[in-house]
Amino acid sequence: MLNQLLQKLPENTNILEATFGLEREGLRVTPEGKIAKSDHPSVLGSRTIHPYIQTDFSEEQLELITPISDSTRQARRRLGAIFDVTQRSLEPNEAIWPLSMPPYLKAEDIEIAKLDNPEEVAYRQQLVATYGKLIQSISGIHYNFELGKNLFQTLFLESQLDNSVDFRNQVYMKLARQFLNYQWFVTYLFGATPLAEKNFYLNMPQGLARALRASKTYGYANDDKVQISFSSLDNYISDIEENIVQGHLSLEKEFYSAVRLRGSKHSRDYLEKGISYVEFRNFDINPFDPLGISQETLDSFHLFILSLLWLDDLENADADIEVAKTLNEKVALAHPLDPLPAQAQPQIILDAMRDLVQHFHLDAYYQGLVEQMELAVKAPETTICGRLFGKIADASLAAFGLTKALEYHQESTQAPYSLKGYESMELSTQMLMFDAIQKGVNLEILDENDQFLKLWHQDHVELVKNGNMTSRDNYVVPLAMANKTVTKKILDQAGFPTPQGQEFANMDAAIRYYPLIADKAIVVKPKSTNFGLGISIFQKPASQADYAKALDIAFAEDSDVLVEEFITGTEYRFFTLNGKCEAVLLRLAANVVGDGKHSIKDLVDLKNQDPLRGSGHRSPLEKIQLGDIEQLMLAQQGYDVDSVLEEGVKVELRGNSNISTGGDSVDLTEDMDQSYKDLAAQMADVMGAWVCGVDLIIPDINQKADINQPNVHCIELNFNPSMYMHTYCHQGPGQAITPKILQELFPELPIYGK
Amino acid sequence: MLNQLLQKLPENTNILEATFGLEREGLRVTPEGKIAKSDHPSVLGSRTIHPYIQTDFSEEQLELITPISDSTRQARRRLGAIFDVTQRSLEPNEAIWPLSMPPYLKAEDIEIAKLDNPEEVAYRQQLVATYGKLIQSISGIHYNFELGKNLFQTLFLESQLDNSVDFRNQVYMKLARQFLNYQWFVTYLFGATPLAEKNFYLNMPQGLARALRASKTYGYANDDKVQISFSSLDNYISDIEENIVQGHLSLEKEFYSAVRLRGSKHSRDYLEKGISYVEFRNFDINPFDPLGISQETLDSFHLFILSLLWLDDLENADADIEVAKTLNEKVALAHPLDPLPAQAQPQIILDAMRDLVQHFHLDAYYQGLVEQMELAVKAPETTICGRLFGKIADASLAAFGLTKALEYHQESTQAPYSLKGYESMELSTQMLMFDAIQKGVNLEILDENDQFLKLWHQDHVELVKNGNMTSRDNYVVPLAMANKTVTKKILDQAGFPTPQGQEFANMDAAIRYYPLIADKAIVVKPKSTNFGLGISIFQKPASQADYAKALDIAFAEDSDVLVEEFITGTEYRFFTLNGKCEAVLLRLAANVVGDGKHSIKDLVDLKNQDPLRGSGHRSPLEKIQLGDIEQLMLAQQGYDVDSVLEEGVKVELRGNSNISTGGDSVDLTEDMDQSYKDLAAQMADVMGAWVCGVDLIIPDINQKADINQPNVHCIELNFNPSMYMHTYCHQGPGQAITPKILQELFPELPIYGK
Fold first, then answer.
1. Do B465 and A447 make contact, defined as CB atoms within 8 angstroms?
2. Which parts of the chain span the membrane according to its record (chains A, B) (predicted)?
3. ipTM for the complex shown
């Protein structure tokens, strides 16, 4: 008996160390709240390989699966991202139903999932034959749990047992037993299936319940003949095997317990390999949470699991569990506002949780969770089902469900450029993560601050940093692009036009160069910086004093400085990928256009309302500021912030065209002459770059590119070019780049048809 | 007539803009000063493809060829490096003869170069038949010259001619004519062949000369029948073609003029394509300069060339040149201390140079060169041949030649780890450049400060930075290795042992971690820095205060900090390349070992005399300092700098084992158990790294590596591992890494036999 095991652990033990996995089912519905008739979205790729987004029983029943996660927060954050991606991948106007019980539907509305694997389809057909079709549409959430490796090892040492597989099986069997013994507690707190819509059951429940899905009567349960003992692993295995021999179960996985042992297809294998983890299947979808399960629920349940291990084991497991099941049925079928029945003893479990929190010095958050559960025990109206009671109208939750479905759908689509839960990462990385989740490429964030991802499909692993730094570029090429002198030499040697110029390592030599540029338009810039810092442009010849000042500024940024001829024309950014130009962008300085009514200040406010504009590089465009620089710029043009511009009059608020200072992005991919796109791609090719941002200065895009004249110059190649900038533009359709990166990295994915 | 053309150029014209190429011949000799009988060194690879090191007529006659260079300094610097590489590639004890005239030798000593191309061999056999064998062994230097592109363009615009090819031909024909007209001036200044060793000529010269090689009588000259006009390109071409028809010349290249038109095999092609450049073949090897030609000579000759263009063209070219040739012969055969004959008018050329220097405001250096030439005209003893006169003993320069040959050889070999002229670059890059020059891979420095090289063989181009950053590593791998968290995750996931630990982004979280490490030996380190900065090691458990201090130090270096268990053992560096461990290094803290006689200070001085020790990372080891840190370390052990240590007693002067603070490097490649080498290579492979420095902590290298125990931990992977460190070691044989890099990059080179 594994009693008092936790109590003996040192207080600084990381008792919360565990791994978690979540599976959330959900029906796709139409904007009218009817079950969707469409196929599983094709943009989600192949269900044969998709690790995150599957269909459950029926074509319209989504199953969202998180990878194994090191904390409840990580698991829920991943679920949030997968949910976000899924919502944004649905047919227009479809949404995900936010309740476990489906909206009103008939059996013929339900279509068995169109899976490639015929065995999977056959299994579903057999389920229909045994249990009927309608009941398959009930959705829920599964909570997979494993104790952390170090914690388990500490427990094992504490146990002084010899065999860690035996110990593992004992721990998880105790957990399963205890769970069944206290399931009523979970049903009470988290039950959220008070009713079924009209005609769902042949025999509809009389009145409201707390958790139809958790009840034996209305939930998804095995035949009464199926009786499996949890008193020991040996008994469990022999019961399972006996039931299969008897034909009560077709497969082991047909045993629908609220708790499942996991890790092997056949229970008998646990004797040798040990139970890997356990799966709790009792969670109804919480419609008050967009994801169907809140952070507090996840952590409360985690505390609950630990308290099950904290408590002493059952004396007479099978008998105790039998009693507990009856209690659970009673709680499940009670009215949402009914308190727990008298024979339930929540105090035991609450005390265990409180002792545990105290013993391991868990913080106030966990204390609060225990208090919240205590309150819920006293006040049924604070439970999920208690709150849901108020949303019932005409014995239906259809209206409430639809409202919530649309609300959550709206939340997912309002910032299409970002990935829920990962908004602090770089936008391009968020977009690539979105694509990976959508297409079913496995994703792990190796370093969040460093934008470092691991992507894989089967054995094929790709590391990606910043969304565009991959194995497809060789190491020395970005190093060459980071060095303006090297870049220029390579382009020059290949015959591509670049501004003529000279590199200087000291002020003296640079000053001595003055006579040669005294009558020329020039640019003075640091050799290696990449953010426009330290650059001076002289569109008219500079005086020697101004030239010296510009050199000072540039030398402050870098030990080497370039002095180059200034090329007249407009600068365009060409994004090239694997030898092809995928996007062309024009960047315009922050500006407003008058309407004869609004002041410049108001025009800026209006323009800043664009949801694409934000701050801190976490949205595709930045809000226009009205600081000193902008006001000076206005003053130079004879305006102030209160000036009202004539209709159509455009005023620039900045001298530079950076997006980061409120500039506009204009997608010109379709309008740009192919000759320039080809030229940009050739430059990237000569450089050997897979990903490249080519900055070309072009005086007249109506002429075709001609490198012999030349009427186009390359002023810079960028090894870390922004991708999101091309995707969500102030003007123009925008070009999605990250999906192409993903496709180039994983051409073998079934969705790409290769 | 292209007269007064330079005079019309604006004074800020970059008149010195030009490209230069040098070819220097030289005989290999034995330590006794006899002609070498050995084959061309096999380490120099294939003469069929070698761009820098060839054989000229005979097997022992080296020809060193610089690439086209943008300045005389660049050309000479490259010649220096090629010369250095060549000397260091010779058979032990061989050296390069520093005079144009060979040491005493007989015709049978000379073996025609063993070239692969039978046509080349046949051509040489024909030369023997026509001119004899001995005269082929005279060596010289060729100076190739082309006006800079911008300068040429400026001149062309100034000329107001229509056709730039015509103009180009006119310019270079004028240059050739004028050169022949003033060749005596060059012969006077730079002639350095006063005598031939015994029996060299059938008819030996009577007495000393200034420049036997430049004379028609003793030099390498065509038959008198060969008469070629330089009055115009048309005349030149028709004369050449006529001489071939007549059989006076077998090929166009058999016309041995002191100046040659270059760019096409057939002169007639110049009419359409233009003369590319001109080659001046008049330079004797200057034995007072290791390279055979000094910087001052190169620049003086450059001024001379420009002054030829500055002067008005010849009125009667052919007649003038005929007169000039007679004068040249007179100067060439005059005694080394004879002044110029009266009919020579050096003042014309000296005035032209002075006018040019003044017109274009050339700096004091160029003024000085003109003054030096002026002096030389007045004082024949200051010319090269004048100086050489004093070195003649017994009518021979054999002893002087040998002394100089050995002196220059010694200079090349005294710092075998560096490449002459490029000592300010990183050592590993210098070594790779050495290898490229040696094996005949084309080399261009794209950015010297950035250690950025372009290497190529035929169409195959490789960019290399820092000697080890190449196309063979993919971009994301070094980024992953630069991130300790990512590295650890990848190694962990692959099952390789790394120290357990935790990453923190803020002080708070790191402090809260304290209970978990309160009783452990730990390392606190910044996540991304690479130079040992900010690392604290607690071999015994740290107090919370010390832990917090260590965190402060680490957070000062990086926004993320790692706290890891401290692994006991010795750290070894494994250098892996393309899946194979190529070298293993142990680094020991700066130390001295007593001899019972010397003080610690003296022991340090003695140890610092090792030529491998220098300062500033430009030698394989650093000199040991005796600063505050070292003295404190001594004091802690009860010593001071004057203590005399017992024989065999070793004292450490530093707590850290970095080479940069005077540490010793010990090459353990051969002694390290293969299991560790394999493990390091596997780690690099899992990481996907082509080049990798794997740092392993091993408590006992006598045990085999076992990752299950584990008895070995990886503490870091380095994406920019030092290579030179493994090559020149304080102890152990040392492993040459850069040749392997080169071989991996260019496996197709004939020398690698693939």
1. no
2. none
3. 0.89
